[in-house]
Amino acid sequence: MVTLKQVAERAGVSIKTVSRIVNGDAGVNARTRKSVERLLSELSYVPNHAARQMRGGVSPVVGLMTDAVATTPYSVDIVRGAQAALREAHQTLIIASSDGDPAREEELWGMFRAHRVSGVVYAAMYHRPHRIGQPVFKEPIVLANCFSPDDDRASIIPDDEDGGCRQARYLLERGHRRIALVTLIDGIEATRLRGQGIRRAFNEAGVAFDESLDKRGMIGPVGREEMVAYRVAHDLITKPQRPTAIICGNDQVAMQVYAAAASLGLSIPGDVSVMGFDDLRLISETLYPQLTTVALPYFDIGRRAVERLDLLASEEDAPLRRELIPCPLVERNSCRSIV
Q1: What per-residue confidence (pLDDT) applies to 69?
Q2: Cβ-contact 296, 157 below 8 angstroms
Q3: Does position 225 have pLDDT exceeding 50, yes or no?
Q4: What is the pLDDT of residue 3?
Q5: pTM for the complete prediction?
Q6: CATH for the 55-158+298-325 domain, from 3.20.20.70, 3.40.50.300, 3.40.50.2300, 3.30.450.20
Q7: Which of 98-107, 160-169, 197-206 has the lowest mean pLDDT?
Q8: CATH class for the region spanning 160-296
Q9: Tens digits of per-residue pLDDT, 5-40?
Q10: Environment class of 5 (CB within 10 Å of its CB; exposed 0-12, middle 13-18, buried 19+)
């Protein structure tokens, strides 16, 4: 990489003069400026923003610690969103995974200190409470896709409750009343919050929700869960009064519901409408008909987490609150209106 010193030597001027020209100082002699600018172009000089930021007291590096987010489908968009925000500020990202190991996590805090990062985004692979305690790290920390149960950390999380409300409201507005749920496992935020949102939509519409139609499509502990959605969906749609629509905990569950319907010779959405969650496009755009679903806003979570880091660094009294990012509904062809 060409340095300011090399440019100055070729131009026969001081390093300070070249630096002033690179930084747009209008006080440099016009002839000297023109000569140096031509040389900068010929040598393909690239300004070292990182060094400039370090001299100004701002680290050009932000850390991102994850439990396993890089291996989770589409949650890698958290990384993409963070990088997009940092690119605008000429900063870079160091990404490290703890694999859920507390000892490894402590090592990573030490690595971030050694690299003098200006802040850290801690990203989880699914929406959950997470207590990171008090690591020996004085720079700002923002949680992404997780939150502190004590609310002592700024956090950016998906608005799962509103996402569930959007699922149910969409179907209710199209005339559906007998709506079944095939959800994720018990005990996780997504199941609880989306369930609350679904019931809120029913209450707002003045429609009673049949609790007997709320079924688990996955069972077992997180990370070792068993998919039972096919069997559950098969049982639901063979009832004498089958549901006209099924809301699924995620797009993988929806795929199992499609399979159950096909095994019985039923069509989607002709015989039963199906709604997903996640917008895992490998599934939602490949299924036929394509799946109407609600998207998890991972990219926006990553971008906003970096923006909150900047706010915490610049404002001493910035609030340490949970910020909800909307989950948009993506309309495709798996739901129909009924009379």
Answers
A1: 59
A2: no
A3: yes
A4: 77
A5: 0.80
A6: 3.40.50.2300
A7: 98-107
A8: alpha beta
A9: 888 888 888 888 887 887 666 678 888 888 888 888
A10: exposed
Q: Which of 44-48, 77-81, 132-136, 158-162 has the lowest mean pLDDT?
A: 44-48
Q: Which tokens in the block code for residue 144? A: 């992404």
Strands (E) located in 39-176: 61-66, 92-97, 120-129, 141-147, 154-158
- The token duo for 75 is 């949650």
Tokens coding 132: 């990171």
Enter the tokens of residue 152. 């002592």
Q: How far apart are CA 182 and CA 228, in angstroms?
A: 10
4-47, which class in CATH?
mainly alpha
Which one, of 67, 72, 95, lies nearest residue 83 by Cα? 95
The domain segmentation of the chain, as residue ranges, is: 4-47, 55-158+298-325, 160-296
Backbone angles phi, psi at 55, to 5 degrees: -65, -30
Q: What is the distance between the alpha carbons of residues 157 and 124, in angstroms, rounded to a whole number?
A: 10
Which amino acid, one-letter code, is at 281? R
